[in-house]
Design goal:
Blueprint (H helix, E strand, L loop, with lengths): L9 E7 H12 L5 H9 L3 E11 L6 H9 L3 E6 L1 E2 L5 E2 L3 H11 L5 E5 L6 H9 L4 E6 L6 H6 L2 E4 L4 H4 L2
Parallel strand pairs: 1-2, 1-6, 2-3, 6-7, 7-8
Antiparallel strand pairs: 4-5
């Protein structure tokens, strides 16, 4: 059965770091091997852009991690964690990832979303139906929206190969 993956396809990989980090931590008490994820997402096709989206904390403990991502081939986009009066914290990149995906779609055949967040379903459908892009999702099945898996053209379940994708 054909996979729909061809060497001439232009690929962009967009990684929701927080979603992947917390999924791996909660499910397996491990860290994600983002270098392996990039390799699997590209799948011997033409990588055009690989962007990871992260949140910076006041302590700055993630600095080395972000540098390691850059060395692995990712552009790293960061923004500060928002802390609201009363202590509530917010830090997500849903809108930023969505805007980048739409802008990049003009130059790509495939967009790989590395997230399990069901909020991306309208983006997946838009990219497929309006931009003609193939959309693949890479995440842990246990923490991925079933509807997101269903909407994607392909799904790589990181839980099926924990030795490869977890550190």
């Amino acid at each position: 059965m054909p996979t729909g993956k061809f060497p001439e396809q232009r690929v962009g990989v967009l990684v929701d770091i927080q979603n992947m980090y917390y999924s791996a931590k909660v499910l397996y008490k491990k860290k994600v091997d983002f270098k392996e994820i990039l390799k699997s997402g590209v799948a011997n096709r033409k990588l055009i852009r690989a962007i990871s989206y992260g949140i910076k904390t006041i302590e700055g403990l993630e600095k080395n991690f972000f540098e390691a991502l850059q060395k692995s081939g990712y552009e790293v986009r960061t923004k500060d964690l928002q802390i609201f009066p009363g202590g509530a914290k917010k830090g997500d990149w849903d809108v930023g990832i969505t805007v980048d995906a739409i802008k990049l779609a003009e130059h790509l055949d495939v967009i790989v979303l590395v997230t399990g967040d069901g909020d991306y379903i309208p983006l997946v459908e838009y990219l497929q139906n309006t931009k003609g892009c193939r959309v693949e999702v890479i995440a842990f099945a246990e923490s991925t929206s079933a509807k997101l898996i269903e909407a994607a053209d392909d799904f790589i379940n990181l839980s099926e190969n924990k030795k490869k994708f977890l550190i």
